[in-house]
Write a structure and sequence with these properties.
The complex is a heterotrimer of chains A (299), B (317) and C (329). Chain A is mostly helical and 299 residues long. Chain A contains ten helices and no strands. With 329 residues, chain C is of the alpha/beta class. Chain C has a domain of 93 residues. Classes of the chains: A mainly alpha (299), B mainly alpha (317), C alpha/beta (329). Chains in contact: A-B, A-C, B-C. Bound molecules: adenosine-5'-triphosphate and magnesium ion. The site of magnesium ion has 5 residues of chain C, from helix 1.
Chain lengths: 299, 317, 329
């Protein structure tokens, strides 16, 4: 439920007292629109910062100013101060947004594509193939996800590319599972049955009906994970895997500031706030989209 | 129920095999040749080859896997490079320390999460509801490793209320109260994200149930609003909440707690993983990962069973 | 047979607010029920029967619904002026309710025995064991075979008829003075319907409980009620003793209802379905709500809504031309 009638509905939602609509329904419709608006605005703002990083940054993010180490916020010439090595915080934050966005988007996009294919082919047939795919995911990925990512990142070694690979691997099972659940609902829908009755082949149905209709809910689900990816990806860099110095990264920057936490808390605090803001943006956006687009979500 | 249990136990085998295969693959992929570790880089090619043969490193991968598995099953988990001690006892020791933290964090998450979720559902669409939702979104977006730092800065450095980290004070009393004091901050920080997730799930499950007709019937019986919500609506939402809580606790022990242990120097599994990553101690790290996985899988089993026990609709078939 | 007055509803209005406007589900209803009296409330789907029933117990969900006007006098007190706590003490104790879809009105994860016991313990202050014993006794009266087994079952393991017996047992256990049965038999098949109606009748007779039975089934009314009120578009349009209603209806809507159902007195005559639809509750006309469908309408009927007036001794009609209403029969 929780959607308004004039919205495009990718999958006929399971009815459930949506008739008695009234106030709550109207309000929550408004709420998911608000969430989407707020979330999209935040994410767009960060994207803009990432694109314009060369113009926003007063300095090269790695440029060291030995005399101006640990300047506070508002120091002339350094709007947001400097870190231990005297690098400009504003420049590093601006450039750091690029890696955070990459971490949020790239693994989800790749894992989403793989999951979409695996999930729709697996679940379309139902029965054995569905069980096989789902149980297979359970078996191979019995490892707790966070640990798996860390173990893979540790094995592959540091670097942005390896970090993206490890996050992608971790994301494949949930994306596959979600697609399979959505497809399981879709394949029972009348328009799929109609297509089947009119003699369409399975492959046609999958490509013309199942896949296009799964994209929206799967995308909504992926968006709702993006916030956690920002937090978690920065966390891997924070513990020393993932992004390596001197490249600017928010997780790394938090770690850099740990030693001077009592003297100059802004060095750790600012990149933390940046992570919270971007992650919250994705979470608002994802929650709203899921309310609107995901047939598995009821409330 | 018994049949279900038997099935579920049987299913443990492939899951654990799969997980161990993943860990084994990681060992194989890990950079560095074990022969280098044993003989040094300067050994002659012939000697190296002899040793490879001796340790069966030329065998096909699956043979090596089952040999490795055999060792694991016998409790031979290798030796930590950094600490020069067998991995398994080390891991066990750390496990209980992590469980202590997880217990604290889990308790916090359940109390706060369920409480907030129920209140939000009862006051649906009110200001309180929106506030709870807002706080939960921000809690979800908050990196534990950063929040830990903020807490330390506030409550330890600035206010001096709580110790900055570790599990016990170096000097003075070694009482349990001391441990408790050390547990507060890491417990709260580690419990915050699961609390936010539990709150959302609890809210959704409560609302789902509160829409149903029997709520009207309960009020028609003359039950107080309190009894309607706590004795019936919450009881009906419980299976869903337990399911999600179990999952969250699983992630907590093995994920969120990791960052928190690092920040607060809590000497558990996570801190140990961190040290082994930093020290490139692969046997130790993979031992920790394997052990955590076993715990994770068993915990999932426990949750599944519990879900059945408290849900008569599922229990019946 | 004269009854002392137990419940009087005056000018009750319960409106629902939604995006589509205000739905005046109950829009100025008037009626009364005497002690121990069995009264039927009949009307088409959507005429506001359930909302009336729920309004009496103040159980309409707010939002979207709200009682905007009127009085509900019960045992001399206006229920609408009571505090929530005072109202709670009336529910289940003085006035009980039985619902249309019994299976969905029971807690799905509570054993039905505990469901009954909960009410008994709450209102009689007994402990759980005594309450269960009382539940067993009630089920025996309701002729439930092996009541102890039934009490240990969950609702999803029982049939609809059995669930309804559980709800009735719950309603009666506290010996209330009024039971509101909202379509208590509509979801059940005919044989079960009959047996439930019979036991409900017997049990309430024994303890002198009044019953308000809402239904869209004329035969149910005839079987179970001594008086009947016909409801249309949120108001009572006719109110009289059951036998009088069937002999000589005095509102064209009642006539339409009677013509649309098969009945023994009319064997051989064709069924005449009523034409048209009731007005949307969001758009009630200023005049008589039945105007658009009425066979005897006149221009004057459109001017203002005809009030429910006594048109003959002991019977009321909201038609300006009650004498002509029956002419269509
Ligand atoms: N939750 C609600 N939200 C909005 N409108 C409602 C709600 N409940 C009832 N209504 C309105 O009240 C009108 C009367 O409903 P009610 O359930 O009382 O009818 P009824 O006579 O009991 O019909 P039925 O025989 O189908 O049970 C409905 O047409 C609807 O417009
Ligand atoms: Mg009804």
């Amino acid at each position: 439920m929780d959607r308004t009638d004039n919205e495009p509905i990718p999958v006929a939602a399971p009815t459930g007292g949506s008739q008695e609509g009234g106030w709550p329904r109207v309000l929550s419709g408004v709420r998911s629109h608000q969430g989407i608006a707020v979330g999209a605005a935040i994410v767009m703002a960060v994207v803009l910062v990432a694109l314009l990083a060369p113009f926003i940054s007063p300095y090269d993010p790695n440029e060291i100013h030995p005399i101006d180490r640990l300047k506070g916020i508002g120091t002339p010439g350094y709007l947001l101060g400097t870190d231990i090595q005297g690098r400009d915080m504003l420049s590093r934050l601006a450039w750091g947004s690029r890696t955070s966005l990459a971490i949020a988007v790239v693994p989800l996009a790749i894992a989403g594509l793989i999951g979409l294919l695996l999930g729709s082919f697996g679940a379309y047939g139902g029965g054995v193939s569905e069980t096989l795919i789902m149980r297979g995911m359970d078996v191979v990925f019995g490892l707790p996800p966070i640990l798996l990512a860390i173990a893979v990142a540790a094995t592959l070694g540091p670097g942005l590319f390896n970090l993206l690979v490890s996050l992608t691997i971790v994301l494949i099972p949930p994306m596959t599972r979600v697609t399979a659940q959505v497809v399981a609902i879709l394949r029972e829908q009348t328009f799929v049955e109609a297509a089947r009755a009119s003699g369409a082949r399975d492959l046609q149905i999958i490509f013309h009906h199942i896949l296009p209709n799964s994209v929206a809910p799967v995308l909504a689900y992926a968006t709702s994970l993006a916030g956690s990816m920002v937090v978690f990806g920065a966390g891997i860099s924070f513990i020393g895997l993932g992004i390596q110095p001197p490249r600017a990264d928010w997780g790394r920057m938090i770690n850099d500031g740990r030693e001077v936490l009592d003297l100059m808390p802004h060095v750790s605090t600012l990149p933390g706030i940046a992570i919270v803001v971007l992650a919250a943006g994705f979470n608002f956006l994802g929650d709203g989209l899921r309310d609107l687009l995901d047939p598995r979500m009821k409330v | 129920m018994l049949r279900f249990l038997a099935w579920r136990l049987l299913f443990l085998i492939p899951v654990l095999l799969g997980a161990s295969a993943v860990v084994f693959t990681l060992i194989q992929l890990a950079p560095g040749d074990p022969i280098d570790v044993l003989m040094g880089v300067f050994a002659s090619p012939e000697a190296r080859e002899a040793l490879r043969a001796k340790y069966g490193l030329n065998d096909p991968a699956y043979v090596q896997y089952f040999r490795w598995l055999w060792h694991i099953l016998q409790g031979d988990w290798g030796v930590s490079i950094q600490q020069r001690r067998p991995v398994l006892p080390l891991v066990m020791e750390k496990f209980w320390i992590t469980m202590l933290l997880t217990g604290a964090a889990g308790l916090f998450a359940i109390v706060v999460g369920v409480g907030a979720g129920v209140i939000a559902a009862v006051k649906q669409n009110s200001l309180t509801d929106r506030l709870i939702l807002l706080v939960s979104v921000f809690s979800l977006s908050m990196p534990a490793y950063w929040l830990g730092l903020v807490f330390i800065f506030l409550f330890s450095v600035t206010l001096g209320w709580l110790p900055t980290g570790g599990m016990r004070s170096f000097m003075g009393e070694k009482s349990n109260l001391d441990v408790l004091e050390h547990m507060i901050m890491p417990g709260v920080v580690a419990g915050l994200t699961p609390a936010a997730i539990i709150a959302r799930v609890a809210r959704a499950a409560m609302l789902e149930g509160m829409r149903l007709d029997y709520m009207t019937a309960l009020r028609a019986k003359g039950l107080s609003e309190r009894a309607v919500i706590l004795r019936h609506a919450l009881r009906n939402a419980l299976p869903t909440i337990v399911n999600m809580t179990g999952l969250q606790i699983g992630y907590l022990i093995l994920g969120a707690a990791l960052f928190v242990e690092i920040i607060f120097s809590w000497p558990g599994l996570g801190y140990e993983i961190y040290k082994s990553v930093i020290g490139r101690d692969m046997p130790m790290m993979l031992g920790l990962v394997l052990f955590s996985t076993i715990v994770f899988v068993l915990l999932n089993l426990l949750v599944d069973v519990l879900y059945r026990v408290i849900n008569p609709r599922v229990r019946a078939d | 047979m004269e009854h002392a007055e137990l419940l009087r509803v005056e000018g009750l209005k319960t409106w629902f607010h939604s995006r589509h406007g205000v739905a005046k589900a109950v829009d100025g209803i008037d009626f009364s029920i005497g002690e121990g009296e069995h009264v039927g409330l009949v009307g088409e789907s959507g005429s506001g029967k359930s909302v009336t029933a729920l309004s009496i117990l103040r159980l309409v969900r707010d939002p979207p619904g709200r009682i905007v006007d009127g009085r509900i006098l019960f045992e001399g007190r206006d229920l609408l002026s009571l505090s929530d706590e005072q109202m709670r003490r009336i529910r289940g104790r003085r006035i009980s309710m039985v619902f249309q879809d019994p299976a969905s009105h029971l807690d799905p994860v509570m054993k039905v025995g505990d469901w009954i016991a909960e009410a008994v313990a709450l209102h009689k202050g007994t402990n759980r064991k005594e309450a269960i014993a009382e539940a067993v006794r009630l089920l025996q009266v309701l002729k439930v075979p092996s009541p102890r087994d039934v009490l240990h079952a969950y609702p999803f393991q029982l049939s609809g008829g059995m669930c309804q017996r559980i709800l009735i047992a719950t309603a009666i256990a506290t010996e209330p003075v009024l039971i509101i049965a909202d379509e208590a038999t509509s979801a059940l098949d005919v044989t079960v319907q009959a047996s439930i109606l019979r036991t409900l009748g017997e049990l309430t007779e024994n303890i002198g409980t009044a019953v308000l039975l809402t239904t869209h089934n004329m035969r149910v009314v005839r079987k179970a009620c001594s008086r009947v009120m016909v409801m249309y578009a949120g108001r009572v349009v006719e109110d009289c003793r059951t036998e009088h209603l069937f002999e000589r209806p005095m509102h064209p809507y009642t006539v339409g209802l009677l013509n649309a159902v098969p009945s023994l007195d009319r064997v051989g005559r064709p069924l005449i379905p009523m034409l048209g639809e009731p007005p949307l509750p969001t758009a009630t006309p200023p005049g008589c709500a039945f105007f658009a469908r009425c066979p005897i309408r006149r221009p004057i009927c459109q001017e203002k809504r005809p009030p429910l007036l006594e048109v003959a001794p002991g019977r009321s009609s909201a038609c300006l031309f009650p004498e002509e209403a029956g002419g269509a029969r």
